[in-house]
Amino acid sequence: MLLVNTFDVEPWWATVPPCVPDEAWDGMADRSVAPIRDYLDLCDAAGVRCTFFFVGWYAQRFPERVREVVARGHEAGCHSMRHRDIATLSDAEFVADTREAKSMVEDAAGREVIAYRAPSFSFPPERAAGLVGMLWELGFRIDSSISTAGRIHGGGFQKSRFPAPGPLDDTLGSPMFEVPVPGVALLGRELQLFGGGYLRLAPSFLLNRLVRRETYQVLYVHPHDFDSDLPDLPNSSPLSNMRRRIRSGRLQDKVLMLFKQCEVLSCGELFERSKLQMQAAHTEVAAV
Ligand SMILES: [Zn+2]
Questions:
Q1: Are 201 and 248 within 8 A, CB to CB?
Q2: Distance 85 CA to ligand 1 centre (A)
Q3: Distance between CA 261 and CA 263 in Å, rounded?
Q4: How far out from the chain centre does Cα 80 lie?
Q5: pLDDT, tens digit, 9 for 90 and up, residues 23-80
C-alpha cells in the first residue's frame, strides 16, 4: 500500500467550530514540542519524509519549529491561518486568510510553500472548483483538502471521482495535483481510519488487515493525537473531550507498523514522482 505521510500542525485548542476566541490564543499553553520532535525521530528511524501542514498563526509564533522540520528534510505546507471552517468564509475571506497563512509559513520555513490542506477537510464540494482555482492563483501546486469520507465537518466527496492522487483537470478543471484523503469502507460507511481520532481508536490488527486490502491511503496526525495528558478543551462538552482522548494502544507503535509495511512518501515526493512519470509517458508517445 502507498501511504502518504502528513502531519497537521495546529494548536490543541484549534477546533471547528472554534472553542477559544482569537484574542485568547496567545495566552494558551502550547503542548506541541514533544509530539513534533517524537514524530521527526519516528520518521528518521523509518527513513521516511513527511509533509507538515502548519497553521499560519503557529508558524508566526513558533518559527523555529517550522525551521527544524525543514532542516530535518521534511516539507512545510499551509493549513490556513487559524483553522477556521472554510464553509464559513467567503471567497474573499478565504483568499485573504490563505495568503496570510502562506506568507507566515514561508517566512518561517525560508522557502516557498506549495502544498495546502483545508482545516478539517472543510471544502464544501460545491465550492471546491473555485477554491482550488484560488489556491492555484496563490501559488499552490499540491492540495490535500478533498476527503471522500463522511465526516462531522467537511468531506463527502465522491470516492469514484477522486480515487487516487493526480491532477484535477478532469474533475475540477484545474492542473492542481490533488492528494485526496480516501475513506475506508467499513461497516457500511466510509471512515477516515488512517487519521485523527479513528486512527487513535483503530486496533492494530484492523490496520494490518487494511494495509493488505487498500492500495493507497493518507496518514494524517496532529500533535494532540500523541498527547496522552491532553487538558479539557475550554467551552466544550464532556463528549467532545472524551472523543479527543480516546485511543487504543500507542499511536507511535501503529505509525511505525504502518511505516514498515507500506511504501511511504510525502506529498512533495509523490508530486515529483508523478511529474517524472508524466514526462516519461510524453517521451514514449513522442517516440511512437
Ligand atoms: Zn487541522
A1: yes
A2: 10
A3: 7
A4: 11
A5: 999 999 999 999 999 999 999 999 999 999 999 999 999 999 999 999 999 999 999 9
Adjacent-strand bridge partners of 265? 4
Q: Cα dist. 74→50, 193, 202 in Å?
A: 5, 24, 27
Placement of cell 521516511 in the chain: 48
* Cβ(166)–Cβ(127) below 8 Å: no
Q: How far is the CA of 44 from the centre of ligand 1 (A)?
A: 23
Report all structural domains of the chain as residue ranges with CATH numbers, in order of start.
2-287 (3.20.20.370)
**Integer CA distances (angstroms), 269 to 87, 121, 142, 165, 261, in order:** 30, 21, 11, 12, 18
Kindly give the distance from the C-alpha atom of residue 284 to the centroid of ligand 1, in angstroms, as a whole number: 41
Beta strands in the chain (DSSP E): 2-9, 51-54, 75-78, 115-116, 142-143, 166-168, 174-178, 184-186, 189-191, 216-221, 263-265
Residue closest to 33 by CA, chosen among 49, 11, 4, 6 = 11
**What single DSSP character describes residue 181?**
B
* Reported pTM: 0.96
The DSSP output letter for 230 is P
Q: How many C-beta atoms surround the C-beta of residue 265 within 10 A?
A: 21
How far is residue 175's CA from residue 224's CA, in Å, rounded to a whole number? 34
**In a 10 Å sphere around its CB, with 0-12 CB exposed, 13-18 middle and 19+ buried, how is residue 270 labelled?**
buried
Contact between 47 and 72 under an 8 Å Cβ cutoff? The reply is: no
pLDDT tens for each residue of 34-48? 999 999 999 999 999
Phi, psi of 176 (to 5 degrees): -50, 135
Which helix (H) or strand (E) is 244 found in, with range? helix 238-245
Ligand 1 centre from 50 Cα, in Å?
15
Residue 218 bridge partners (DSSP): 4
Length of the chain equals 288
Instruction: State the sign of the Cα–Cα–Cα–Cα dihedral 177, 180, 15, 40.
Output: negative
